[in-house]
From TrEMBL:
This enzyme's EC code(s): 4.2.1.108
Listed name of the protein: L-ectoine synthase
Lyase as UniProt keyword: yes
InterPro entries, per the entry: Ectoine_synth (IPR010462), RmlC-like_jellyroll (IPR014710), RmlC_Cupin_sf (IPR011051)
Pfam families: Ectoine_synth
Gene name per UniProt: ectC
Taxonomic source organism: Streptomonospora wellingtoniae
Entry-linked Gene3D superfamilies: Jelly Rolls
Superkingdom, taxonomy of origin: Bacteria
Catalytic activity: (2S)-4-acetamido-2-aminobutanoate = L-ectoine + H2O
Lineage: Bacteria, Bacillati, Actinomycetota, Actinomycetes, Streptosporangiales
Length: 133
């Protein structure tokens, strides 16, 4: 059994901060459970374009409001608490938070916690044995 609190992650290598978001990665590949689990806050008034070419991501909003655009189709969705979206087709997408937007995210395959978006918005496919980018 694994038991962790957010305070266990705060300030560690699994607490990733950028200009547009903060992601606390709570369950990682090293836990060997087949997925990773994160709490992420995307900041109000920012815009983040992403493309998980190597991962499937489920995003469940628990606080705030954001517009999510499928950059491939132009389709836009308003995401509010209790709404989720699933990037099951590796969609290029852009998130535009209207307020601070707190979400719970599940990744498959699991991330190691060292990933950051590259110039295309992609997380590299890392394993525990892969050196950091």
């Amino acid at each position: 059994m694994i038991v962790r609190s957010m305070s266990d992650v705060d300030g560690t290598d699994a607490d990733i901060k950028t200009e547009t978001w903060r992601s606390r990665r709570i369950v990682l590949a090293k836990d060997k459970v087949g997925f990773s689990f994160h709490e992420t806050v995307l900041y109000a008034g920012t815009e983040t374009s992403m493309w998980y070419a190597n991962h499937i991501e489920l995003v469940h909003c628990i606080e705030g409001e954001a517009e999510v655009t499928n950059d491939e189709t132009g389709e836009t969705h308003l995401i509010t608490p209790g709404t989720l979206y699933l990037l099951n087709g590796h969609e290029h997408h852009t998130v535009r938070p209207k307020t601070d937007f707190r979400v719970l995210c599940v990744f498959n395959p699991p991330v190691t916690g060292r990933e950051v978006h590259d110039e295309n918005g992609v997380y590299p496919l890392l394993t525990e044995e892969t050196p950091s980018p």
